[in-house]
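Progress report, Aim 2. The chain analyzed during this reporting quarter is listed below.
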Amino acid sequence: MKVLMVYYSRTGVTRKATDKIAELLREAGVEVKAEEIGEAKRRGGFRGWLGWIRDATRRRTAPIEPVEADLTAYDLVAVGTPVWAWSASTPVRTFCDSHGGKAKQVAFYCTMGGSGDKGAFKAMEELCGKTPVATLALIERHVRKDDEEKFLAKAKEFAVKIAAAG
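Predicted structure tokens for the chain:
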């Protein structure tokens, strides 16, 4: 089975979650490639963050860098996002809207301060036009601390579901 993990990470938390999930998938014998979604125009600092939150609240998309991977070459695309304004981040919304329909199967994961996963997963599902085979919601502080029960065990369960989908 071949899995493409596509994610956006402004602070590094979603990247850390992606790295761990990819490691677990490889341990399960899955071929994995990870690709980070790049912003076409980087909005730095606090003002940039506020702009992204405003766009997420308004359910907008924004320009992203071209995606290198051919989604049709993978059995499943796992999409990861931080939660912004109880929804998927603006770069992930753009990815799902532009590329989600090319994926054979999808899985979604998110990192968040405390809530918003349902809104993020709903937006991603609508934009991709596909029901995910698995979802994973992670609390940011658990990811940062490598919490065994609240991060690592959940990541392993998610990886097992993805591997079983192949």
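Strands lie at 2-7, 31-36, 76-84, 87-88, 106-112, 135-139. Residues 2-165 form a domain with the Rossmann fold fold (CATH 3.40.50.360). These observations will guide the mutagenesis work planned for the next reporting period.
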